[in-house]
């Protein structure tokens, strides 16, 4: 699979407005800007990488078809969300400037968990 061509909403720096009576049937804002992921001065590359890796994780573990996730932690100050779904533990740090080592989270089964990416 060529992930470079599998892009979605991260290619939309502007709003999307499909041709309709209210915009004179204009296609001006009904376009995706796929070139943005290749521009080094923008953050679309990092967003694309995140999206690509989530798609690869889905391909490997099939977590989207699994029952709903159990959210075991969400910490607004740390910007951390922890949940498990389809026997996969997801730990996301969305903090813009803080990294964490040894961040403790509760899990159902004790043991070591591999880091995927």
From TrEMBL:
<protein>
    <submittedName>
        <fullName>1,4-alpha-glucan branching enzyme</fullName>
    </submittedName>
</protein>
<dbReference type="InterPro" id="IPR013780">
    <property type="entry name" value="Glyco_hydro_b"/>
</dbReference>
<feature type="domain" description="Alpha-amylase/branching enzyme C-terminal all beta">
    <location>
        <begin position="70"/>
        <end position="113"/>
    </location>
</feature>
<dbReference type="Pfam" id="PF02806">
    <property type="entry name" value="Alpha-amylase_C"/>
</dbReference>
<dbReference type="InterPro" id="IPR006048">
    <property type="entry name" value="A-amylase/branching_C"/>
</dbReference>
């Amino acid at each position: 699979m060529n992930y470079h061509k599998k892009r979605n909403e991260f290619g939309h720096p502007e709003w999307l407005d499909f041709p309709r009576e209210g915009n004179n049937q204009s296609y001006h804002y009904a376009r995706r800007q796929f070139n943005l992921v290749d521009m080094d001065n923008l953050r679309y590359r990092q967003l694309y990488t995140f999206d690509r890796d989530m798609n690869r994780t889905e391909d490997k573990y099939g977590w989207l078809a699994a029952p709903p996730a159990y959210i075991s932690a969400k910490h607004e100050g740390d910007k951390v969300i922890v949940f498990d779904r389809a026997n996969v533990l997801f730990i996301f740090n969305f903090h813009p400037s803080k990294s964490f080592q040894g961040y403790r989270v509760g899990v159902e089964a004790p043991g070591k968990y591999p880091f995927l990416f």
